[in-house]
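Collaborator request log, item 7. Partner lab (contact: R.S.) asked for a structural prediction of Lipase (Class 3) to inform their binding assays.
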Amino acid sequence: MEHPEEDRPAGRTGPAGTGGAPAERPRDPGTALELLVHGVGGATPQDMLDDPHTVRIAGDDVAAVFRRADDVRAEHLPAAHRDEPVPEAYVWCNLTSGNGTRALWLLLLPFMVVNLAHWMRPAARDRGRLVRLYGLLVRLAALSLTVLLVAAACEVALDLAAWQCAGTRACADRHSWLGFLSPEASGDGWWSEPGRRLGLAALVPAALTGLLWYLSLRTWSAYESQQPMAHEPEDGGPTAMSRPGFWYGRRLVARLRAAHTAAGLLTVAFAVAHAAARHDRAPGGSEALALLGLLVQAALFAAGAVVVWAVCRRGRTDRRPDDVLDTRLLRLLPLAALLLLALCLVYAGWRRPGWESAGRLPGDMTFGALSLVQGLLVIVLAGVAHALYRSAPDRRAAMRGLAGPAVMMLACALGGVMSGGVAQRVSDWLDGTGASIPGPPVVLTWQAAVIPPLLVLFLGLCCWLARRAWLIARDEQAAVTREFPDETGDPARTRRIANARAMASLTDRGPRIVALTSAATLLLGAGALVGALTTDRTPGEAARGTHAVVHGAAETSQALGSWLIGLGFVLFVTWGRRAYKDASARRTIGILWDVGTFWPRAAHPFAPPCYAERAVPDLTWRIETWTRATGGRLVLSGHSQGSVLAAAAAWQLTPSARGRVALLTYGSPLERLYGRWFPAHFGPDALGALHRDVDCWRNLHRRTDPIGGPVGLSGDRGPEVDRPALKDPLAYGRTESHPLPAPILGHSDYQADPAFAEERRRLLARLRPGVPAPRRTEDPGDGARTGTRPSAG
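Returned to partner:
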């Protein structure tokens, strides 16, 4: 919405960068407002406002804006608030860690990680086709993860339970709940047919698919269906986050939800139909049923091609709110898959005299094909990411633009570990002595065998990090001594400060850890796939003819990997159950979601919901309506992840409102984490444009902070944004102003530093009306800002 000329800040007559004569600011400053946005882990309004008596003035039980009880009518008494701003807290922690059931979102971790890979695309110039290809490859990898999850459920329910255990008397006798499915118990009854047992077991993975569909639909309605404030798109901006449809992608999520639901149902249908068709094609099988089986499988492959087309056909659109649904596709695709599943159940349940369940179902082909497809997608994505990076090199980008492929590789590995862990644990539970049933597919056993080498590599990386931390801490001890020259020496105190700085610096080694881990995972996974497909034997059996040491190492790695992969899944479930009962554990898991679910669901519809699609519109509406109604000054104050939300909200503001907002960030990962891992949206160009668009911006950081850091804008923009690193601790020893030992604050309590109040006061003074702001001029050659303005400091 366009505002009248007299309401625009000085130096602006329209969208940022359009030039023109400066306009006068409002004469009456009115009430100044400080809108506080907390970071990861959550906070209460009482803690944020430092007052036990708070009132909710907008919002609901999920996310709301609070004020002190004494400040509810502050706009009606502007004279009482001319020196200090009115604090207002936006509390959004219940979006991610509000109740215990959301802790079970931990089981959706692979989906969340592959969704992150979509947003880690390198910044690019004039490479629209490569950008679209990058998104397509990630969406295909996300589809393979859905198929992998449902295939693992089919492996457990159909193969291990209904086919192997129920078809083996020794196993069925140990588990009474499977007794009615055993041919020995039913004789020539209904359940004597293996196809009917498979049809009954197919209800488990089909129900899992339906549950994922329901959760995706429900979370969209609860979290992501908030309409953003309408404004004109800024097509020429350095980031898509300023576009009106960035935080509202209803059409794509609905389309992907229909496609992934259909893919899950088709996976179940294929598992049931393939077992029956294999029997019909064998000698002695019915020719009519064999022909029917071919037709059913052809229909399944055709439906699968339609699902892949639906995923490939449309990507993300953010130039406008994407709310026009593909109604026919949404209805017909899951319904067609459900009808095909019913047809497959009828086909498999047809009576076939002499059909007995023996050995394993053909799961090696499915899991091997999924592993091969995922590996190829990672390799191709790496090539596309490298080409994008070369078009606009950014030395600060993590892994030289290859962060997306590396993270996608880790997502596929997580999916494999969780799938193999479920199959291995259920097999051990059903088998008991280990001699009654064949167990899970061989390819899962090979994949389990690579877990110990990966753990050895990971331990080696941890040792390298520990050595780096020790070396940095040794150097920092001398730096601490120089910074506090007049203090009494205390070796223990010096070591604690130096160790805090050293541990904080390890965050910058994250890209190297991810690169080595993902590369090793890709190579070891390829070796496991080759071993499984070429030998059709477990690692121990394949090495039986070699040297005894090699044979023993292969068997040990296989057994240890199977145990570890199952233990990992049990820990996942246990952690989720503990978080359901323990609020502290729930908050810890909530921190993971605070970081991982900031981005919209652009690749996987079953990922945990994006809280920013609720939080960013909340902040945008609050800022726009308050500044429009009062014409007052507003400081948008964000800590940690709250600073990322604040920046995202500032990009969504209309240019006139954005120019009346000052930005104060502290402990901010905007450049240190988001700028490096998500360079297309938080790179130097995007952050520099944000600095030019908001009226003024200051950033506070500490050397002991493992998350926050300087914004690091190049040229004349850097000193205006970053204040020199704050002292931490505030005093080395006991002083008159600090009679008790000052704590090492690290990432917390930035408001306790006097610099916080000082910077906030200077930002308010910069926003005060009546002080003419220098006009910004545009260089006709490259569009860069040549004029300067006074620093907020």
